[in-house]
Amino acid sequence: MIGKIIKGKSFKGCISYILDKENAKLLGGEGVLLNNTNSIINSFYMQSLMNPSLAKSVGHIPLSYSKDDAPKLTDAFMLKLAKEYLQAMGIENTQYIIVRHSDREHPHCHIVFNRVDNNGKTISDKNDHFRNEKVTKTLKEKYGLTFGTGKEKVKTHRLKEPDKTKYEIHKTIQTALKSAKNWNQFRDTLNKSGIELKFKYKGQSNEIQGISFAKGDYSFKGSEIDRQFSYSKIDYQLQKNSREQSQEISQTKLDYSFNQSSALENAGSILGGLFDIQPSSSDYDSDREEYLLQQQLKKKKKRKGLKM
After folding, report:
1. CATH match of 157-236 with 1.10.3470
2. Residue 297's pLDDT is what?
3. Is CATH 2.40.50.140 what the domain over 2-147 is classified as, yes or no?
C-alpha cells in the first residue's frame, strides 16, 4: 500500500480525469451530489469558495496496492481502507469521493477531497508526507498487506513528470552514498548526472537546516525524495563511510607491518642457519688421523727413554 499526496487548483481537471477513465468505479463519497461528473465538480467548487485565499484547494491521493493483494481487495475492502486512511490522516469534516481504477496490473483507487472543510477552514497539510508513510505502514501491518521492497521496483518508464525526475535523483543519490566519503565527493557524483545540491541555512548563519536537489525544471527537498535523504541522515552516512575507510586503511597498514616483520624473522632464521652448520661424516680424513696418532706415540717413547 502506497499513498501519494497531490495538491492542485482545478477540481474539474482532476475529477474529470478520474471519473472518465475506462471502467472507473465510484466506490463512495461524502458531502457531494453524486448524480454525474458535473454535479460532483460543482459541489467541490462551491465549497472551495468558502476559503478563496487557499490557492490549491484540491486534494488528490492515489492509493496503490501490491498485485499480490488483489484477491483480498474487493470493492468493499478497498473503500474501508480508504476511509480509514482519511481518518488517520486527519482529513475529516470535508467532501470526498473514492474511485477505483482497473487500468493497471496492481489494484488502486483515487481519493479526491476538498482541502476547504465544511466550516470553510483549511485542512492542515503539515508533515503530510511523513504522516502518509506512517499511516500506510500501520494499515499494511493491521490488515496483513504486502510490503514492497522500495523504490527499486518502480517501473520508471511509466512515470510522468515530476515523478520521473524525482526517481532519477533518488537512484543517483543512492549510488553516491555507497562510495562518497565527504560532501565534496557526494556533490561531484551528483553534478556528473546534472543534479544540483543546495543547502538551506538558518537565518543569516552558517548552520545548515536542510537540503534540496534540483534537476532540470524540478527541485525537491531531500525528505520529499526519501526519508533517508534529509541533511542529517546523509551527513551521518558520509561520516560513516569516512570512518570505515579509515579503519580499512589502518588495518591494511597493520597487516603490511605484520607481514614485513614475519618476512624479516624468516630471513633471519634462514641466514642464521647458514652460519650454524655442523661438520658431517663426509668431512672425516683417515690419513690425517693416522698421522696425529703416530706423533703421539713418538712423544711417549721419548718420555720413557728419558726416565730410564
Report:
1. no
2. 67
3. no
